[in-house]
Specification:
Layout lengths: L7 H10 L6 H12 L6 H8 L8 H13 L4 E3 L8 E3 L6 E5 L5 E4 L23 E4 L2 H6 L1
Parallel strand pairs: 3-5
Antiparallel strand pairs: 1-2, 3-4
Helix pairs in contact: 2-4, 3-4
Length: 144
């Protein structure tokens, strides 16, 4: 897995570009998403950050994620699974693959996606597209 590292200034610039006022908690949450491209849930983010941010609450994590998504800094991935929404920071458009066995969410470039995409009828204006493939990841499919 590729590792990422961002300076505090880069995170502040990202927040500023999205029109989001910085706070210590917002910086910590965005840093976590930018540096850990694992598509975490609210609980995973909370558990990762709470030891070093003792005043952090799950509500603050949830509200911050919604704020960052509204500012188009991150994306919410609705997997339809029991563990809730996943959160994604990425600078490029891509699809996702959700493994039905292990629950891991993986980025897939559109160029690598096998089904052709549906083009909306004339007159529709598309602001965003969410593509989630579901099945078994390579590791889980080997075990079958």
């Amino acid at each position: 897995m590729q590792t990422y590292s961002f300076t505090t200034q880069e995170i502040l610039d990202t927040l500023s570009e999205g029109g989001v006022k910085p706070s210590a908690q917002r910086i910590a949450i965005l840093r976590y998403l930018m540096e850990n491209r694992i598509h975490p849930t609210v609980d995973e983010i909370f558990k990762a950050l709470q030891p070093t941010n003792p005043t952090l609450s799950r509500t603050t994590v949830y509200n911050t994620l919604r704020l960052l998504a509204a500012a188009c800094i991150i994306r919410c991935i609705e997997t339809g699974g029991g563990d809730g929404a996943r959160w994604d920071y990425s600078q490029h458009d891509h699809a996702h693959f959700l493994c039905a066995s292990c629950g891991k969410v993986t980025d897939i470039d559109y160029n690598d996606a096998s089904p052709s995409f549906v083009i909306p009828p004339k007159g529709y204006i598309v602001h965003s597209t969410d593509v989630i493939f579901k099945g078994l990841c390579p590791l889980c499919s080997e075990a079958v």
